[in-house]
DNA sequence: ATTGCTTGGTCAAACGTTTGACCAACATTC
DNA sequence: GAATGTTGGTCAAACGTTTGACCAAGCAAT
């Protein structure tokens, strides 16, 4: 029941000229008298003519659409990233075609195929957690479709990427703890196989090394451990903990729970720093110090890199490790005041 | 630099048949010998042929794409709604084209035009807050493009919609407070001009009326008041408050802050219920009772209505007022246990 | 009068696909 | 031997747009 939109040929017919002339009048390609040009433009306006981008796409082999593959929408990080992406693509006149992978590799592969089928001009992807296959991404590259990876990347796939500087982010957090008197710092790690988990852990280790604190294996826990609460509890009981750095703000909250149970005051006896600057960090008590990854900016950058690549595929690969910001709130002791 | 994808004519040429034959072989339209059919299918597979949906769109005047206009991504409500929408559209084989309005009417109008230009098969929209013009939406309808409004709607525009039952949601929350001994219940209202603000307020009033509690104007505050904290404080000091119902979880948190300042224990002395079931509600202390609006389900429903309309535009208009769920957590007294 | 240039157009192909109309070859029926 | 039906195809139009090639008319220069 969709109404037929008026086309260039309709205008041509009405004015007894050919579609070519109408096209040139509307796009300013010359070869049309001033009088006809005005006539055509007037009629086009009157009839509410709007060019059909589908026809143009077919001809130009371009869709002015970019595809996005994102694990999910609900984490604050991704919605901010999405907002950043949207802000630049919409300004550049590009449409955004969105697919979710649900952190599921098969769905990611399917989404990739869908976007390729849709002939998007480029793809922006955050690869899913448990990714061990990369053929589908290689296929994107092979097809000549520009690809930019955001947030997570793999060395297996040679393409521009924008990631957060997890190492430095973790390092700055743990160094702050060290500088403010912490010597026994717990770390709760993130999901296995994720470069972010690894890099944050490395940042933790490096900060300890720099401040000549020996690494204590007992102070390192796995966030995915089903007995995490008990593990934290026994860790707190058996070690003179004075600091904690966790892979996420949610894991930091687990520490809050145990500390509350054991009546260990934060920050007086235990300084805590989380990661990601989720909204909850300003609402829990005490407010949580954390590491902000600037997801909006990451999205902006990723989208820009992609557009650059679309406009000139021979351009040198642009990659960024986005700086993090240490956000200090009530959960940390500060020796200086 | 995008590689040319292999087309139906390439296959036709290689096999010395016409494109028509290839098309029929691939789509099973008969008129092709079994032998040729298998040959064609084999070659298509070998060459990695994938049909070009752009060409099909041009022919069919359908894009298998639905447009989404959403105010923003960062509120949990919208990201859940988006997830719900995506879950049904992707299953139905539809692409999702996303635009944000940033709660800005001009941008909403622009987005609408963009989607119409893109020839989407239907539009799903959450109209922006300060909406007083509806011509653009009427234009969508006039163009014959199915439109479904989600979360917010206007009587000016006659189309299917899915909204949350704010009245009942508020009513159930306030009634719960009444049933559990509260007689002096504070209400903090939402933004002006929003039907949700009005309806939640009406629900509040109706619950009081039903439980024969007289409405006290002094117990009703504006969430947008810059001196909200002070207003709440003086309200708590001057009235024997025993309950509070707020337009949002964030406003409920303001009450937490004041209560903490005044050393009023929640829920022992004051029961609090928020609205929206934002993630923070399970992380603040005590955990916050709230009203869940089932945004995921709203998205699912909206998308389904739209798809139904796309498949049969003459179908009767489907609208829903989605039930809310009262989520009881630690912030409310319960007389029964 | 011939050549050459400019202006203002038209024509046709192209993009990839589908589909109704047509058609030749062959088999069947009377 | 003529009419009819079936099988396995081809042809061309259509969707809306752009664009290179062509062309006629008018004019100026030789």
From TrEMBL, chains A, B:
<keyword id="KW-0804">Transcription</keyword>
<dbReference type="Pfam" id="PF13377">
    <property type="entry name" value="Peripla_BP_3"/>
</dbReference>
<dbReference type="InterPro" id="IPR010982">
    <property type="entry name" value="Lambda_DNA-bd_dom_sf"/>
</dbReference>
<feature type="domain" description="HTH lacI-type">
    <location>
        <begin position="6"/>
        <end position="60"/>
    </location>
</feature>
<dbReference type="GO" id="GO:0000976">
    <property type="term" value="F:transcription cis-regulatory region binding"/>
</dbReference>
<protein>
    <submittedName>
        <fullName>LacI family transcriptional regulator</fullName>
    </submittedName>
</protein>
<dbReference type="InterPro" id="IPR046335">
    <property type="entry name" value="LacI/GalR-like_sensor"/>
</dbReference>
<dbReference type="Pfam" id="PF00356">
    <property type="entry name" value="LacI"/>
</dbReference>
<dbReference type="GO" id="GO:0003700">
    <property type="term" value="F:DNA-binding transcription factor activity"/>
</dbReference>
<dbReference type="InterPro" id="IPR000843">
    <property type="entry name" value="HTH_LacI"/>
</dbReference>
<keyword id="KW-0805">Transcription regulation</keyword>
<keyword id="KW-0238">DNA-binding</keyword>
<dbReference type="InterPro" id="IPR028082">
    <property type="entry name" value="Peripla_BP_I"/>
</dbReference>
């Amino acid at each position: 029941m969709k109404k037929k939109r008026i086309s260039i040929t309709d205008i041509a017919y009405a004015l007894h000229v050919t579609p070519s002339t109408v096209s040139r009048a509307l796009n300013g390609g010359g070869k049309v008298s001033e009088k006809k040009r005005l006539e055509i433009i007037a009629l086009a306006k009157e009839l509410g003519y709007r060019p059909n981008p589908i026809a143009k796409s077919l001809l130009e082999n371009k869709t002015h659409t970019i595809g996005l593959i994102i694990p999910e929408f609900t984490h604050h990080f991704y919605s901010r990233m999405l907002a950043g992406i949207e802000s630049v693509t919409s300004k550049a006149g590009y449409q955004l075609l969105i697919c979710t992978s649900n952190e599921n590799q098969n769905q990611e592969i399917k989404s990739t195929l869908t976007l390729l089928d849709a002939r998007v001009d480029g793809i922006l992807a955050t690869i899913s957690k448990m990714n061990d296959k990369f053929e589908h991404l290689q296929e994107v590259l092979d097809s000549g479709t520009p690809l930019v990876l955001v947030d997570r990347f793999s060395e297996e796939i040679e393409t521009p990427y924008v990631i957060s500087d997890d190492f430095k982010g973790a390092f700055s957090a743990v160094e702050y703890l060290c500088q403010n008197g912490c010597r026994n710092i717990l770390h709760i790690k993130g999901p296995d196989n994720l470069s972010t988990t690894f890099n944050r852990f490395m940042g933790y280790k490096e900060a300890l090394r720099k401040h000549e604190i020996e690494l204590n294996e007992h102070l390192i826990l796995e966030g995915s451990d089903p007995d995490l609460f008990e593990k934290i509890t026994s860790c707190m009981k058996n070690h003179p903990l004075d600091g904690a750095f966790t892979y996420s703000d949610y894991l930091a909250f687990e520490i809050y729970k145990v500390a509350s149970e054991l009546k260990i005051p934060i920050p007086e006896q235990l300084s805590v720093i989380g990661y990601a600057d989720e909204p909850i960090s300003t609402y829990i008590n005490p407010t949580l110090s954390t590491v902000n990854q600037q997801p909006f900016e990451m999205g902006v950058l990723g989208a820009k890199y992609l557009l650059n690549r679309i406009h000139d595929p021979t351009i040198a690969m642009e990659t960024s490790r986005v700086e993090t910001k240490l956000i200090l709130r009530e959960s940390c002791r500060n020796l200086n005041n």
